[in-house]
User: Fold this.
Amino acid sequence: MTKQMTAAMAAMLMVGALPMQAQEPLSTTTKTVKVAPGETKTTVITKEAGAKGANTTGTRSAARGRKRATRRKSTSKAAPAESSTSRMLRELQEKQGAQQAEIDALTQANAAKDAALAQAQADAQTAQTQAQSATQAAQSVNATVQQNSDAVQALKTNVTDLQTTNAGLASTISANKQELNDKIESPASIHYKGVTLTPVGFFAFEGVWRQRSLNSDINTSFNLTPYPGSNEGHISELNFTARQSRLGLLMEGRAADFKLSGYVETDFLSAGATSNNNQSNSYTLRVRQVWGKAETNSGFAVTGGQTWSLVTEDGKSTDARTEKLPNTVDPQYMVGFSWERQPAIRLQQKFGGANQVNGGTLAISLEQAQIQLGATQNAPTNFIFGGAGQSGGLYNAFNGTYANNIAPDVLAKFAFDAPHAHFEVGGLARFFRDELNPLIFTTTGTTTVATNSTTVVRNTKLGGGAFGAARVSASKFADVAIQGMFGDGTARYGSSQLGDVTVHPDGTLEPIRNYHGLFSLETHPAPKLDVYAYYGAEYNQRTYYTSPTGTLVGYGTPNTVETGCYALTLGTATGIGTTGTSGAPGSVAGCSPSTKQIQEGMFGFTYRVLNSPKYGRLQYQATYSNLQKSAWRGVLAGTYPTGTLGSGRATNNMVHVSMRYYIP
Assistant:
């Protein structure tokens, strides 16, 4: 900017000088010479500008045309008069000097301004730098403040969390204290070393009314329902009992990778030699279940002891203690229900591990065998398959026949659990052995006579069949289930206890074809109320043979005498009724038919007055059932085959009631 102003001023001066030079084209030179101390001599030489091409040098001038030279001598003591030209020149010079001074002053001012501007720029740069530093410092301070604020906020949050944690901890401590007090005052289980002991059981008052007497406690011998020809077929009975009250204990522990458990369960539904209903009603304690179990994390388990048979429907996998039993008061349960409780060893593998909820399980079991002989007509006497128990061997010498078994019953089952359903299918193999003296048949003319040989022969027959069950929870209000079993010699696993085998004319055993099944509908209309209905049936096939002597031998022979089954025999002075009692139900003269089928329909309810995990469960239960028994066709009157043939039936109506308190 300063340079531009200087150039402008010079241009102005040059423009101002041009007119004067045009008016007075003169050239002036001033020379000052020192003459003496304190004195000087000034010589002014003025020349007129010549034509183009003139040359002027110092004190010499040449001019073409008009010339005029004037010399003036002067000293410091006297000055000649100043000409107008000199004056004008001097004034011009003074004016030029003043302008130069102004230019210099302006230049200096501009320089000062430039310096001030530079200083201001430097100061501004410094200020900017300082401002940036201040900004950075402020930002740093802000960051520090934010960090401090965040730290304070985090501290506040930590304090709040700590307060919340302390409150939660206090609540937890209070809850744990309450829980600990509850466990001390009312423990759900007892701990002994590394084992957890959990008591189980209930205390019961129960009763039964039957239209036709069985001379029985609340358990019903379905196949002994009396025919109309028996006195018991015309008289009812009412019995109260507490004998089904149950006591048990579950023991559980872990050892390395094994879960160990043991279970014992008892009731009083057995009778000793002196047990009676006269005064003390002292009946004996009996074993229901006693078993131990070891299970690995992979789902493999071994269960050994007395437990429910593998044919019994399970509620989960094939685990013991998950059995699905009919909701009955009757400890013989329902016609058509497949079950046994007997000594066994069971191996099972859960394919989803020990804790599987849904999935498959495969199990096999070796179980105590027993042979039940069906009502056989005209059976030979040359065989033996068992005998009465020996007291010294701790078997019951007063009740039942113990089979001479050659092998256990072998069972296998596959079970599958789905979210709202359970399915299972299985099979069993049975072995029926007897010992006999083969018969020797001698025919003379038209007559054939049988005699026993002295040779002893052992004969084994193979039996068995298949079984299955399906249970579906259609909704939270209802469960529907069906189960069934069929095979040769499988009747022992049905509640009616029909015969497993009959006898050939030669004395060997022959399995009887059996079918049985049960349908269940269990509803839950209210949290405290269950209403249910069941229908079950069991069927034994007619199995008989004609011997070489022409005799019909076996189960359900058409020549069976049934004349006494349907007509009541009146008492006489020496007959039935003279002592006030009679024989076992149905054991009347001329009545020994083979049972064809038994069926039972039942419905009932259970109401839980109280159901508390701390105090236990109090419930009331009542059921009504109708039982029908049919025999195979036989001779009702006259003789076979010309007599009157037919088959009758026996019926019974029963009501069971119960009040139970289950311990928690």
